[in-house]
Every structure is written in C-alpha cells, then in structure tokens.
Amino acid sequence: MKTINVGLIGFGTIGAGVAKILSENQEIIQKRLGATLRLAKIVDLDIETDRGVQVDDGVLSTSVDDILENPEIDIVIELMGGYEPARTFMLKALANNKHVVTANKALLALHGDELFGVVEEKKLSIGFEASIGGAIPIIRSIREAFVGNRIHTIEGIVNGTANYILSKMSDENCEFDVALKEAQEKGFAEADPTFDIEGIDSAHKIAVLTRIAYGTPVNFDDINVSGITNISSDDIECAREFGYRIKLLAISKFDGEAIDIRVHPAMIPISHPMASVNGVLNAIRICDDMMDENILAGHGAGALPTGSAVVGDVVEIARNILSNASDRVPASSFLNSEIKPIPLKDMSAIESEYFLRFNVLDKPGVLSKISGILGNHCISIESMIQKGRGEEGKAVSLVMMCHRSSEKNIQNALKEIEKLDVVCGKSNLIRVEK
Ligand code: HSE
Fold first, then answer.
1. Which of 188, 230, 304, 356 is most buried, by CB atoms within 10 Å?
2. Structural domains in the chain?
3. What is the residue-level pLDDT of the chain in tens, covering all 434 positions?
C-alpha cells in the first residue's frame, strides 16, 4: 500500500488534535483512502511539553527544514498561525512542490492573492477548511457543493470564543472577563484573544469566504469591524425583553454591483435558527439564486473539530495525489484569472433596524429631545423601554428599537444626541438583522 507522508508545523492545541486523529483513526483513514497517511515529522519550537498524544521516536523536531526540505514529505500542515514566519514557510513548502493545509485565516485574508496564485501556478493544492467554522464544511460547500449557484449572502457566527462569551453572559448572567477566561482555558481563543473579541478573527474569515463565494480579492482594511467588548449584560437583558439575542455576526452581501461586508454584534430574533446557536458552536447561512438559504452549523473551534477539518483536507489532497489530479478544484473556487475586484459598499450606505441605548438623566423633556433629533433625521421609533427610576443627578438607561433607516442618518443623529447635556457618556448602537 502506498504511503503519503505528512509534515506538521505547529504542535499546539489543533496540532495535537490532528496528531491524535491521524494516530487513533489511522485504520479507518486507510480503508477510505487506500493508502497510509503517515505523520512523518512534527516541528515546533517546544517539543518538550506533553501534548497528550503519543508520537513515534524521531518524529518531533525543532527544525522546520526537516519538513520543508524533506523530499519524502508530500503534504505540509501549517498550524503555527500568524503572518510570519507562517507565510514564508508556506511559500517555501509550495516552492518545494509540497501541497499545503492550513487553519490560518489571518494569513489567507491578508496574503490570499499571493498564496493562491502560487498554488495555481505550481498546480498544487491548498486546503483551508479548518480556517473557518472549525468542523463545518463551509469551504467544501462553496468550492464544490454549491459550485453551480450564484451566492449573494453569507452571514455567520464564525467566532467560537465570542459566541461562547455572549452565550455565557446571556445564560448565566456572568461578567465578560469570566467568560473570556474560561474560553481561553478551553483552548478556543486565539493566542491573542483581542482578535476574537474585537471581531478581527471573524473579519479574516468573512474576507476569505467573500473571496471564494463571489470571486473577488478583498482589501482587509476596508472591512468595517466592531467587536463585543461594548456589550453589557444590560444590552443582553434588553435584547431578551425585545425578543432578540445578541450575536457577533460576520456579514457579506453582494447585490450584483457592490459587496456589503462587515462584522459587528447584531440582534437576531429569538425565533431565528441562528439565535439558538450557542457556546462555541458556529453557524453560517448561505443564500443563493437557486435554493434560497442553507444554514450549516457545528463546532467552530477546539482541537478535535478543527483537527477533523485539517485531516479531511489532508485526505482529500492525498486522494488527488493518488489520482494525479492535484489542481482539480481552484483554490479560490474561481480560476485565479477570474478573480476580479468588486467594489465594497461604504458602511454609511447600508440600511438596518437599530437598537439604541442612551444613559440619560431621568427628568422631564429628555425623551422628547432625543425623539425630536431622531425624527429630524427621518428615524422612526418602534418601541422603547426606560430601565429604572433615576435618583437625582444619576443616569438611567433609555433603550429604543428603531424602524429601518440608513446608517448615515443614525450616525448623524447619535452625534447630535450625545451632545445633549442630559445624555451621559457614549451611547450604544446594535444593528438588528432579521
Ligand atoms: N479563535 C477561533 C474561535 C478559533 O474562537 O472561533 C477558530 O478559528
């Protein structure tokens, strides 16, 4: 039986998951592949820490050239994360005619053009299923299952850490910091959790999905991103009272002319299927011209879900190697020559319904001042709650749901409202996605 040799760079949480799957499920993989997948080398700077998986003697190394310059290795798995040296290592692997598998959405979001270009030029394969949605086969769905359809909307909960935090805050009324710490301890969070909680990780993911769904490069810095650090337990409680849950959403909508791409916390109705996607689970909704909508949900982070996606890619590439068809599926789903820039919509041009929260002094005339400004900017209030009865000089929360209006009008109104002397501090805005 033929043996396909695999090299793994990065022996952290996901790397250990991959090693466990390849070792414990070796037999079933062999039965499905008709060849042996051998984890020939694992490279990490730290090869002393016990990762909880058994590896053969001589497999661990601290020298990346044991993989990149090793002529026996067919497929390189990059799980170190970050931009450099991951980019250099992947380019070197490709230059040495090795196929690559990665979970590195940050690298693909910023250097996708370069990497996908080299992959196509060298007629090699790149697998990146593990980069988005953990175990959810979203890349395969877009690149292969829905290849005949024109996708126009992708909307997803694509960060397990943020979803875990929001779910825990909502279910257990717990503080943000407590929930974040627990997510980190469970191995869901990025090395730098700022990427998770500030929406940057979700933005990396939606940039990659946008590329493969619509066939366009995405300039990462043009994505409007806000995270969940401003969400308080009061917001979560108010959302519940209005019949909503708060989720960090990554959104990409293509109307045929421009793409509306953004990441922000959003209120979704409790009856929406994604409202019940809690904890570390992810869900991605895809709409296209042929089948309305599909929602894919599953484990979005963690060693074994993400490790499963990595192994799935490795086996797919191994099958391609065995049948001499390595460039069968274009890396970006479209041929590189067909990747053409599509303009991105300016955030001020979007329309939405809005939840607004103001800290105001509880005295006569305050509501009329605020509603007057909203009215002047053509914003109509749907419903309103005042939280508590303020003591003199102390602020109370005034929360409102507003009918559909333009982002530009809302932002202009907020600027004016925040200048009122009865409004204390910055107000909070959460978009409503139905
Ligand atoms: N930190 C990421 C998350 C891991 O929490 O979803 C998977 O990309």
1. 188
2. 3-134+303-338 (3.40.50.720), 139-299 (3.30.360.10), 347-432 (3.30.70.260)
3. 899 999 999 999 999 999 999 999 999 999 999 999 999 999 999 999 999 998 988 999 999 999 999 999 999 999 999 999 999 999 999 999 999 999 999 999 999 999 999 999 999 999 999 999 999 999 999 999 999 999 999 999 999 999 999 999 999 988 888 888 888 888 777 777 999 999 999 999 999 999 999 999 999 999 999 999 999 888 999 999 999 999 999 999 999 999 999 999 999 999 999 999 999 999 999 999 998 899 999 999 889 999 999 999 999 999 999 999 988 999 999 999 999 999 999 999 999 999 999 999 988 899 999 999 999 999 999 999 887 765 666 788 899 999 999 999 999 999 999 999 999 988 899 999 98
Atom of ligand 1 nearest to the CA of 205: 8
The tokens for 270 are 């409790």
Ligand 1 pocket residue status of 108, Cβ below 6 Å: no
Tokens of 338: 């067909």
CB 245 within 8 A of CB 169: no
- Does the annotation mark 20 as catalytic? no
CA-CA distance, 73 to 183, in Å (whole number)?
35
Pairing assessment for the beta strands 36-43 and 3-9 based on DSSP bridges: parallel
| Backbone torsions φ then ψ of 109, nearest 5 degrees | -65, -35
Q: Is the CB of 163 under 6 A from ligand 1?
A: no
CA–centroid distance, 188 to ligand 1, in Å, is: 6
Q: Please tell me the distance between residue 383's alpha carbon and the centre of ligand 1 in angstroms.
A: 35
Residue of 128, 129, 159 to mutate, ligand 1, most atoms within 8 A of C-beta: 159
Taking CA 18 as the corner, what is the angle to CA 15 and CA 23, rounded to the nearest 5 degrees? 125
Query: What is the Å distance from ligand 1's center to 301 Cα?
Result: 5
In terms of Cα–Cα distance, which of 124, 62, 59 is closest to 93? 124
Any ligand 1 atom below 6 A from CB of 301: yes
* Candidates 98, 205, 247, 345; catalytic one: 205
Task: Match 């890349």 to its residue by tokens.
Answer: 139
Cβ of 201 below 6 Å from ligand 1: yes
For the record, the structure tokens of 334 come out as 């479209």
Looking at the CA of residue 306, tell me the nearest atom of ligand 1.
7
